[in-house]
Amino acid sequence: MKVTKIHTYDLTYPVERAFANSCVWNRARTIGVVEVETDAGITGWGEGSRVPAVGILTHALGRDPFDAQVLAAEATTAGCTPGAWSGVDIALYDIMGQAVGRPVHQLLGGAVHERLPVYASGLFLYDGDEPTAGLAQEAGAYVAAGFSAVKMKIGFGARIDAARAAAVRAAIGSEVLLAVDANCAYDAGTAIASTRAVAEHDIYWYEEPVPPTAVEAYREIRQAAPMQLAGGEALEGLNEFRDIVSKRALDIVQPDISIAGGFTACRKIDALTEAHGLRTLPHMWGSSIRLAATLHWQATLPEGAGLVPEPCLFEFDMTENKLRTELALTPYEQRDGYVVVPDAPGLGLQIDREVLARYTRKKQSVSD
Fold first, then answer.
1. Which residues are identified as catalytic?
2. Which CATH number is 106-340's, of 3.20.20.120, 3.30.460.10, 3.40.309.10, 3.30.70.330?
């Protein structure tokens, strides 16, 4: 089996109502989709934070999809970033799974989970809303929908963070897990003040207080923070995770499969994390392709030791995004606080080509 054609699609979905975290307003969702065709009639789909240049793609033509690790190494040597190669790598695994009639998680060594507990990832700010009341109302709706964990946006100053965390905690009750995400808004000192301000509201983890490359700042914050520290979603490739993991600057490591380098890179990152006694809980904020790929990978991650292990929480993005809710012919849904791991060959999804065409702003193709 050989790769015969590769198509890349730059997709943009303009949201109907803009929403903000601590640093930016989100007015559109953008992704890079990769479609890989083979001479066996099998087509694979992948998603990256962006797509590779055409010149990089040509080196994969005529190659065996089962040589995914070799192709990833060659792409890196040729100057392709892991974020750009991620979509190709995911598509190659999709092809491999279909070729042998097995879901991707079996290619990775087997699923530990048939379903994963989900947390509602939302609670952004919306223009025109009274933020605190809006956050509390949204959080309460997630609990009513069956979620047993939620993640909210903070990063607006320690006092505001505390007030909003208090409102959300009151809305969701004492049994629901609450994580917070500052989206790299702070310096180390301000972040420490924020961690202490929100701590009384039983915070499960505090995510991305500072940029992920600020390893020494993460170490300082981790030593002072009264809750678990999480981060790493924007890091690309094994080497970018090396220092923050080896220096134990995080408690929870959050690679994004469409940024870090696909299945090939994420398997190595998880091994690094496990060797240092840390937890991996992947980040997921993309289309239905990224969601499916993350499900397959996360299904292989253990919960941990003990009679009551920590939950292997799956990030279920609840923001408006038709690339997540409509791109796949059968969308992924949470039921009773869980999402089922796909068991069809490959990624187990089919793409709605009408939706793909509707949001494609640029398409490029290479072929033998």
1. 283
2. 3.20.20.120
